[in-house]
C-alpha cells in the first residue's frame, strides 16, 4: 500500500491540473479573470478523471517567473480555484504552490488536500537565486493546522536548479526521510517535462524503502514501464497535454492511452 487514499493500488499515477497564471503574476489574463482560471482547470479535470488517473495535484506552473514566497493575492486565488472545482473531484487531490512550502501547506490544509508537494529540504543554485527551503517551519505549520494526516511529498532534486549538496542523491533522499520526516520522496529531471535519470531513480528506490518513491517529471507512455518497475508511481503533467506541450490543455486520448498501459503493468 502506498497511502491509504490510494486504496490497494501498488502503483499510483498523480496527474497535474495546471492552473493558469494567478492574479499578480505577469502572465495573468485580466480579461478572463478568475472565472477563466476555473473554467480551464475544470475542463482538464474532467478529462483526467475520465481517463482514470488515481489522483490530481493542483499546481501554479504558469506563475512565471517563480517566487520563493507566495503573495497574498496568488495564495488566495489558488485557494479559491481549488475550492471552486473541489465538488467535481472523484479522486484524492493535492496541491503545490511553486516554490513555497508554507503556502503549499496552508492551501492544502484549508482546502482539505490529501497531500502537498514541494522542495522541503536542501540548498540549490537556481534560476530564482539561492534556494533554501525551511522544512521545519512547514512541518510545524501542518501540525498547528491540525493536518498531520496530509502527506508531505518531498521533491529532493529541484527543477531549474542545481543542488549545492555534494552527497549522492540517494543519501540526500534517505536523510530527508530520517531528519525531516518525508512521507514520500520524488525524483525529478532538470526541467519540467524532462525525465529523471533512471539510474538516480533506481538508486533512490533501492535506498529508501520505508516510504514511497515517485518519478516526478518527464514520465511518458514510452518510459512508464521502466519507471513503474522500480518506483511506487509517478507525477505526470506534460505528457497528458495536447502535443506534449506543458502549457497546452489536457488531451483526453493521451490520458486514456497512458492509463491503459499503466493498468496493464499493475
UniProtKB/TrEMBL annotation:
Sections of the chain in a coiled coil: none
InterPro entries for the chain: BtpA, RibuloseP-bd_barrel
A Pfam family assignment: BtpA
Domain of life of the source: Bacteria
Protein family membership: Belongs to the BtpA family.
PANTHER family (UniProt xref): SGC REGION PROTEIN SGCQ-RELATED (PTHR21381:SF3), ZGC:162297 (PTHR21381)
Name of the featured protein: SgcQ protein
Organism: Breoghania corrubedonensis
Amino acid at each position: 500500500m502506498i497511502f491509504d487514499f490510494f486504496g490497494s493500488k501498488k502503483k499510483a499515477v498523480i496527474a497535474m491540473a495546471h492552473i493558469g497564471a494567478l492574479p499578480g503574476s505577469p502572465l495573468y489574463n485580466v480579461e478572463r479573470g478568475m472565472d477563466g482560471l476555473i473554467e480551464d482547470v475544470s475542463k482538464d479535470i474532467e478529462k483526467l478523471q475520465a481517463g482514470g488517473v488515481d489522483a490530481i495535484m493542483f499546481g501554479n506552473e504558469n506563475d512565471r517567473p517563480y517566487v520563493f514566497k507566495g503573495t497574498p493575492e496568488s495564495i488566495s486565488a489558488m485557494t479559491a480555484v481549488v475550492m471552486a472545482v473541489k465538488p467535481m473531484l472523484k479522486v484524492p487531490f493535492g496541491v503545490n504552490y511553486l516554490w513555497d512550502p508554507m503556502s503549499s501547506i496552508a492551501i492544502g490544509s484549508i482546502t482539505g488536500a490529501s497531500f502537498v508537494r514541494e522542495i522541503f529540504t536542501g540548498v540549490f543554485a537556481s534560476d530564482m537565486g539561492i534556494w533554501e527551503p525551511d522544512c521545519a517551519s512547514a512541518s510545524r505549520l501542518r501540525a498547528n493546522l491540525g493536518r498531520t494526516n496530509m502527506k508531505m511529498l518531498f521533491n529532493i532534486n529541484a527543477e531549474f536548479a542545481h543542488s549545492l549538496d555534494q552527497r549522492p542523491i540517494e543519501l540526500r533522499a534517505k536523510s530527508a526521510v530520517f531528519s525531516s520526516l518525508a512521507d514520500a520522496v520524488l525524483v525529478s529531471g532538470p526541467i519540467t517535462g524532462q525525465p529523471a535519470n533512471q539510474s538516480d531513480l533506481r538508486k533512490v528506490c533501492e535506498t529508501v524503502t520505508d516510504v514511497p518513491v515517485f518519478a516526478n517529471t518527464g514520465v511518458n507512455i514510452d518510459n512508464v514501464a521502466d519507471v513503474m518497475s522500480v518506483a511506487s508511481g509517478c507525477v505526470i503533467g506534460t505528457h497528458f497535454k495536447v502535443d506534449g506541450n506543458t502549457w497546452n490543455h489536457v488531451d483526453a486520448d493521451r490520458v486514456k492511452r497512458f492509463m491503459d498501459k499503466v493498468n496493464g503493468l499493475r
